[in-house]
Amino acid sequence: MIIKHSLGAYGIHVYSKDALLNELPDSSFIITDQTVRRMLSAQISESIPLLALEPGEQSKTLEAFGRCHEWLVSRGANRKSTLVALGGGVIGDLVGFVAATYMRGVPFIQIPSTLLAQVDSSVGGKVGIDLGQVKNLVGAFHAPTEVRLSVELLQYLPERQFINGMAEVWKYGAIMDAALFEILEKCPISPGSPELGDVIHRCIGLKAQVVEADEFETNGLRAILNFGHTVGHAIESLTGYGPVLHGEAIAIGMAVESKIGEMLGLTEKGTYERLCSALNNQKLPITHPICRDVDAMVENMKRDKKAAKRELTFSLLTEIGQCKLLGGVDEKAVRAALMDL
Ligand SMILES: NC(=O)c1ccc[n+]([C@@H]2O[C@H](COP(=O)([O-])OP(=O)(O)OC[C@H]3O[C@@H](n4cnc5c(N)ncnc54)[C@H](O)[C@@H]3O)[C@@H](O)[C@H]2O)c1
Ligand SMILES: [Zn+2]
Fold first, then answer.
1. Whose CA is nearest to atom 9 of ligand 1?
2. Do strands 50-53 and 322-326 pair parallel, antiparallel, or not at all (unpaired)?
3. Whose CA is nearest to atom 11 of ligand 1?
4. Does 307 have pLDDT greater than 70?
5. CA 201/CA 26 separation, integer angstroms
6. Among residues of the chain, what percentage have pLDDT more than 90?
7. Which of 5, 35, 164 best tests ligand 1's pocket when mutated (most atoms within 8 Å of CB)?
8. How far is the C-alpha of 80 from the C-alpha of 18, rounded, in Å?
9. What pTM was computed for the model?
10. If we measure between CA atoms, which residue out of 40, 35, 49, 46 comes closest to residue 15?
């Protein structure tokens, strides 16, 4: 699959685990995390410089960003060098941002190793880091030159991390692909499922359609990907990032937002029930105690960095497989939906 962007295009290529790091460009520099380095120790060649950071969100910081730049300078990386982001969404976002800024920009290859990174963060060119408690505050658009995918890596993921990525898969079905949603309802996907590779490709194809139509998030089309995210981001923020994983937070967000949609008369009746049953079967949560703190939730959503003029904006379903962006949503409906969980 080829993804087009304003400065060119990049391919999504499928690899076996053993071939994943073969034939990297000359002067490649791998940045990964310690968990992924251990997992791929047999495939990593000692001849390629490699930096392994602490796993998790704690590495999406200015400090880690600076450390990567200093390491690249000390190892002689130049403008013709290629960075290789080997890991989950944290490594992809961080290394992508390092690549966007090192010597005013060098190429980088994404090798996403979590389901979330394969279906979402490795495609679309958004890169960046957190600043204090504010997620993704500092960043850029910098497309990779290639994305290398290996479904084999997903069998090493802890179950909770796999399910976390499945939340984004359900989201694609819910907002733009009713047939995908039905496939997922009929056939639960696990790391060993023969359908997993096709499902990942289908999700990447859907994301590609959206980001090609709104690469820099300027015409509102890309915002449909935020279904579940207005509420989800508030949950992540109010619980202090960590206890509730991103996919878990957006699963709850999708449930709440489908209820908001039904209350507004925009979402077909029965959608909330159907979505909750699907998310339940996937062992994803559909509510959280913090949702009962309605004042804090609503205030947080109004402060979201994407909320224009403190307006509540949601990507809401009209039915499974279709959605619509809605600004200026009446706060009463949001409060009612949160209280009715
Ligand atoms: N740029 C975007 O468009 C975009 C989109 C969605 C999310 N994100 C970002 O992605 C990040 C979350 O990504 P994530 O969920 O991949 O988290 P992550 O990168 O922290 O990975 C989760 C955990 O899994 C481990 N891991 C990675 N691959 C593994 C494997 N194959 N087997 C076993 N363990 C493995 C990691 O070491 C880590 O501990 C967030 O920072 C979020 O903001 C970015
Ligand atoms: Zn998301």
1. 89
2. unpaired
3. 89
4. no
5. 28
6. 94
7. 35
8. 26
9. 0.96
10. 40
